[in-house]
Amino acid sequence: MLPAVWISLGLIAAVLFVYAQVHQFGFVNWDDPPYVTENPHVLGGLSWQSTRWAFTSTHTGGLWLPLTWLSLMLDVNMWGPAAGGLHVTNVVLHAANAVLLFGLLYRMSGARGRSAFVAALFAVHPLQVESVAWVTERKDVLSTFFLLLTLWAYVAYVSRPTVVRYLGTVVVFALGLMAKPMLVTLPFLLLLLDIWPLERLPLTGPARSRSARPGGGGHGPVLMRLLLEKVPLLVMAILTSVATFVAQRSAGAISTIGALPLEYRVQIALRSYIAYIAKLLWPSKLAALYPFHAPSPSVIAGCAVILIAITAIAVLAARRYPYVPVGWFWYLGSLVPVIGLIQVGSQTQADRFTYVPAIGLFIVVAWGAYDLATRWPRGRVALAGAASITLAACSITARVQTGYWRDSLTLWQHTLDVTSENAGGHAYLGLALANLGKTDEAISHYTEAIRIEPKLPDVHVNLANALASQGKTDDAIAHYQDELRMRPNTINAHNGLGSALDDQGKYAEAIVHYRDALRIDPGSAPVLNNLGIALVNQGNLDEAASYLVEAARLAPDDAETHYNAAAVLEKLGRFREAGRLAEETLRRQPDHAQTRALRERLRASGHVAP
Residue 471 carries which DSSP code? Predict the structure, then answer.
């Protein structure tokens, strides 16, 4: 049997085999913009100002993720804003998680081979790729890192209970919650570990004296002590859950009960539980975004029967094989925050949701296969061969799956190749094509997305933007208006419609939409700039100047915005202010021809010193 250190190095090597390629990958157009590429707080790196923002912001869908934000900012300080360094950090965290998982299981159970197999499956299973190869899922790998550290701290506390060790568990758990609130199920997971392998509450026989406190007899008093022990952690989890629910509902990320009835959400949960098991057993046709197709009543009934049957088997096996109910309920319980009972956004299934829950099923497979194999003389040899083949197949498949995250075009084309009627896939592929200047192809995919799901957010705006770029202003206006009929507070629709009306010379109507956009986001530099230009076209230079100067302040690196403000100030005779803006622009972008000409005019007229 290999020493633990060699197993750990092997896990790291396996992770590198699958994921070393990601250092060459870019960002994708799915959540990476708000998390990194369009987030000035992250791009500015770690500072006191950005740290304050990290702890006070629920920037993405109502999630409070201060530790995740800080880690991304630190990456920018270390690697710069390019994607490669941020990808590398995700891989390092995933490798650390695999090693921590191996060490944890080995310490608790003493079963080196089985612990290594679980950690290896965790390291190279294709279903884990989304959590590792996607920069946005830093919150997944980082929160799991602290989850595993919490479990390590808890095991240390169990071996020698002290207040200091318990406080250490609480502190690390708090850090995990600050990386991602999905860790709220941890108190339940600790109770499962108390049953097996810690045997503080064994299903047969007395509790281990080293783990259970003295006094009291039978399982009842022991269970009560263990439950009371979890109360501080449970309170933290409940407070985090409530705060997350309120913040996400305010951000519009949680569907209302009226829109998604309980029956519908239960159907989502039943189907998802079985779908994830199928993907873990046979990881094929993995996609970044899965479309939701309402299953038939017979499918839902079948899923319910399978779940009930597996649960019954797990309970019946508990006395002889305690790892079976522990692994099964780990899977069921840790999926609860994302299984669909409280629907967040429109996604009903995602590979990344299994990053932690899969550990429970891996434990059942590893320990169950070992118990079966030891019944035959050559069982262990066969088991070693089967394990090697399984890990090799998973590694190769995961390496291929990782390659699909190279860029947005590759990701969404693969998604459409392995799914059908996928409105979201068409929408994101259209956006990727539009960014490459392939406007006709983008329009084709936007149109297909709308055919499949007419009310999909932002697609009408993106289609309208593409049509406007081709000079099809009337068609663009129609789609901006479609978006506003469905979602009146869409800032991009108001701004785009204003620009289209501007192009038609309808300045008064355009100004109305720009003002509506500013009502939604008073600090939008592009909208302020557009409103200022529309006011210039109306001849209202004084009001235009106030908006353009504010836009220049909010967008210090945008040369066009600075030039627009300086040009209006020149027309108003505010030459010194115009000259100052021109100088600021040329310091950042010396080759901006219009600003250079404006500065020369001001110098030639004597209004600004050469």
Answer: T
Give the CATH architecture of domain 410-604.
Alpha Horseshoe (1.25)
Which one, of 368, 364, 401, 362, lies nearest residue 119 by Cα? 362
Residue spans of the domains in the chain: they are: 4-403, 410-604
pLDDT over 50 (residue 158): yes
N-terminal to C-terminal alpha carbon distance within the chain:
79
Q: What is the pLDDT, as a whole number, of residue 210?
A: 43
Chain centroid to Cα 27, Å, comes to 13
SS3 139: helix
Collect all residues with Cβ–Cβ distance below 8 Å to 143 and sequence separation of at least 6: 68, 176, 177, 179, 180, 182, 183
DSSP state of 289: S
pTM: 0.91
| Residue with the two structure tokens 């309980």 | 262
Which two tokens mark 421? 């009627």
- DSSP secondary structure letters along 55-75: HH--TTTT---HHHHHHHHHH
DSSP string, 348-403: ---GGGGTTTHHHHHHHHHHHHHHHHTTSTTHHHHHHHHHHHHHHHHHHHHHHHHH
Evaluate whether 481 touches 467 at the Cβ level (below 8 Å): no
Q: Which of the 8 DSSP states describes residue 317?
A: T
Place of tokens 């808890």: 154
Instruction: Give CA–CA dist 283/391, Å, rounded.
Output: 13
CA distance 526 to 519: 14
CA distance 493 to 480: 5
DSSP string, 183-219: GGGHHHHHHHHHHTTS-SS-SSSPPPTTTSPSS--SH
pLDDT, tens only, 234-283 = 999 999 888 887 776 665 555 543 456 777 788 889 999 999 999 999 99
H/E stretch holding 577 reads helix 575-588
Task: Give, in order, the Cα–Cα distances in Å from 284 to each of 22, 99, 290.
Answer: 21, 26, 13
Q: Which neighbouring-strand residues pair with 254?
A: 344
> Do 598 and 582 contact (CB within 8 A), yes or no?
yes
Q: Taking the CB of residue 208, how many other CB atoms lie within 10 A of it?
A: 13
Token pair belonging to 367: 């320990």
Q: CB 317: neighbour CB atoms within 10 A?
A: 16
Bridge partners of 344?
Answer: 254
Model confidence at 332: pLDDT above 50: yes
Query: CA neighbours within 13 Å on the CB side: how many for 99?
Result: 18
Helix, strand or coil, per DSSP, at residue 344: strand
Burial of 174 (0-12, 13-18, 19+ CB in 10 A): middle
Structure tokens at 105: 């299981």
- Which distant-in-sequence residues (6+ apart) come within 8 Å of 45 by Cβ? 73, 74, 76, 77
Q: Give me the count of residues in the chain.
A: 610
Give how far the C-alpha of residue 202 lies from the chain's centroid of Cα atoms, to the nearest Å: 37
Give helix 491-503 / helix 459-469 axis angle, nearest 10°.
Answer: 20
